[in-house]
Specification:
By secondary structure, the chain is of the alpha+beta class. The chain is 35% helix and 28% strand. The chain contains eight helices and ten strands. The C terminus is likely disordered.
Length: 219
């Protein structure tokens, strides 16, 4: 997991990752988790897994947890029951609000308070990484929990990590194509369709109902 307060912070860390650890040097799938610790679902089904997810996603993807920082990083941080690399982490409401407002100002979407994972592409031009909010996939964990036979955040996360690994490690993978319109690699069938194809078949129909894919605007 990564300490950050803004969209610019995320892009700075992604720039370093492109240069130092990613196999792909043009585009990677990136996750932004919006999940406040006061939420019951976050507390029971997300916080206990942050340390595992930290290691599970390393080297081929980065997943940023908005507002979560080491408890001694700055004043105003509240301690939460989450440990990453044997260090207790906390939650900064000001940092969380800053990244939420960055996303809202970049897109037409407004955060509704539910624990949500946003999946987007990050592009690298050899100088800097840029997040692409033109196409994004939102996974609302509360809406998923209300479905019949709902998948857990953990089961969804495992599939996200496998999907990200496939997308980000194999430069020849056919799910990517070079878009003449955008001048860069994009997922052949879009993030939602491509991701659903990786989910267990019994899970796909219910998860599809709760996933919100949005083309924010065209370039």
């Amino acid at each position: 997991m990564n300490v950050f307060h803004s969209k610019a912070d995320i892009e700075d860390r992604l720039t370093k990752a492109f240069r130092e650890k990613y196999k792909r040097k043009d585009v990677v799938l990136t996750g932004i988790l919006l999940a406040r610790p006061e939420d019951k679902l976050t507390k029971s089904d997300i916080l206990p897994h942050l340390n595992y997810w930290h290691y599970r996603s390393d080297y081929y993807a980065d997943f940023f947890c908005a507002g979560y920082i080491p408890v001694d990083f700055e004043n105003g941080t509240i301690a939460v029951d989450a440990y990453i690399d044997d260090l207790q982490w906390g939650f900064s409401h000001s940092a969380f609000v800053e990244i939420v407002e960055d996303i809202e100002n970049t897109t037409d979407w407004s955060y509704n308070g539910d624990p949500t994972l946003i999946l987007i592409n990050a592009y690298f031009d050899e100088n800097a990484a840029k997040l692409d909010f033109h196409r994004l996939l939102r996974i609302n964990f509360r809406e998923l929990s209300l479905l019949k036979n709902p998948p857990t955040p953990t089961s969804i996360a495992e599939n996200v990590f496998e999907f990200a690994k496939k997308c980000n490690e194999d430069e020849s993978d056919p799910i990517w194509e070079l878009s003449t319109k955008f001048g860069r690699r994009i997922l052949r069938k879009g993030i939602k369709t491509a991701f659903l194809s990786w989910l267990p078949k019994w899970l796909s129909p219910t998860v599809a109902e709760a996933m919100q894919f949005e083309v924010v605007h065209e370039i």
